[in-house]
Write a structure and sequence with these properties.
This protein has a 7-stranded parallel sheet, sandwiched between helices. Helix 4 runs parallel beside helix 5. The chain has a single domain, classed as Rossmann fold (3-Layer(aba) Sandwich), CATH 3.40.50. It is built from 9 helices and 7 strands; from the N terminus they run H-E-H-E-H-E-H-E-H-E-H-E-H-H-H-E. The chain is an alpha/beta fold and about 270 residues long.
Amino acid sequence: MAEINELFNLKNKNAIVTGGYGYLGKGIVDTLRLCGCNVIVAGRSKEKFNNAFANYSEENLHFHKIDIMSSESIEDCFAGVQKKVGDIDILINNAHSAIGNSQENMSDEDWNYTMEGVVGSVHKSIRTIIPYMKKQGRGKIINISSMYGLVSPDFETLYFGNDCEKYTNPPHYGAAKAAMIQLTRYYAVLLGKYNIYVNSVSPGPFPKESIQNENPEFLNRLKNKNPLKKVGEPKDLAGVIAILSSSASDFITGQTFQVDGGWTIW
């Protein structure tokens, strides 16, 4: 049996993290780098990448432009990364693109754009990475879903008063995240024989610092909605990301891991 440290050792491994300069994305990138991984942050904005990682060494951290809404852009990104660093061992589909937050006034365009930007983009990404991982004979794919892919928002006790409506997760977001979980299962079955693992992570309440600061009443409601009575921080994803990215998860595929303080067990 391998030493415990070796189970989580990602030295000489290459990972792509879409949206890796975002609130949760940055925590994911930090975890991979601590495990020794070479990380390519894929996103639309080099400026946001530079701001997020201004004090970081560039030794094992890189940026590559991608538009997750475009198949051509995804193809160009993965080809460019493979040419630059070699095998793509890990793909973490963290980025999403969504518009529309009003349940009653949501347009068809809002719905279609968000479904494409949340689950359609993940399908494109997985479809594109398959030939690379098949050729190298291995791969780890992690899709970042949401607790709202598993349960519905509690509108009556959580999203009311003091402008809390603007934080509400609209129906197309939850529907797309639920679809992502099913897509994870589908690809886990399809790709298992090629030594390609596909799992998903469903974060619970991880409000950005701006939300925590501007609405402490809403923050307390979030805390009281789970047994641990607290909200998550990006570092709380570290354990599950380290496991699913490494050889520690070599008999785990098609699973969804809830990191939500117990929110979805009630």
